[in-house]
Design brief:
Layout (H helix, E strand, L loop, with lengths): L4 E6 L6 H10 L5 E7 L10 H11 L6 E6 L3 H8 L3 E6 L2 H18 L2 E6 L9 H9 L10 H11 L5
Parallel strand pairs: 1-2, 1-4, 2-3, 4-5
């Protein structure tokens, strides 16, 4: 029997409790999930690529069958490369769906890989990486939105600490 691999792409700048909820629930659909952290030279993330990689690996260390990789290029090509059967994306509401649908259709067109949408837990729909970054930049505590090690890394980043 072959291994069912699902790719969960995103910037994960940083990974949040919302992301982790989607990943945990999606794990029931596959033998392995690859968290594909996008590296886009046109975008400047708050956290460096290697930092996002390490923080994400720590955040999912307790979930068996998860691999975390930095990925540049098209996600459709990456899915083909790793033999993924699907892409999984979390959806918090209609605007997420409107944003994700064209990408899902293009990825299907380019690679034949389907996208599975996992609806967010209603208790977590208010959490987004961009809001977490903004709160952290204003010195607010984000420990109820992200794992403790990520909250600390964000605090160090905005406080001028080592990254």
């Amino acid at each position: 029997m072959s291994t069912r691999i699902i790719v969960c792409p995103g910037s994960f700048d940083p990974i949040t409790f919302g992301h982790l909820d989607v990943i945990r629930r999606a794990k029931a659909l596959a033998d392995e999930i690859v968290i594909a952290i996008g590296v886009n030279p046109a975008k400047v993330p708050m956290l460096e690529d290697q930092t996002r990689l390490e923080l994400t690996r720590q955040a999912v260390a307790d979930i068996p069958g998860i691999r975390v990789e930095l990925v540049s290029g098209l996600i459709a090509d990456y899915c083909r490369h790793v033999g993924a059967s699907a892409i999984v994306k979390g959806i918090r509401g209609g605007s997420d769906f409107d944003h994700e649908l064209p990408m899902a259709l293009m990825n299907q067109h380019l690679s034949g890989v389907e996208t599975v949408f996992v609806t967010a837990d209603p208790k977590l729909t208010h959490i987004s990486s961009s809001l977490v970054r903004e709160l952290a930049q204003f010195g607010r505590d984000v420990s109820d939105l992200v794992p403790a090690h990520i909250a600390e890394a964000l605090k160090q980043k905005v406080g001028g600490g080592d990254e």
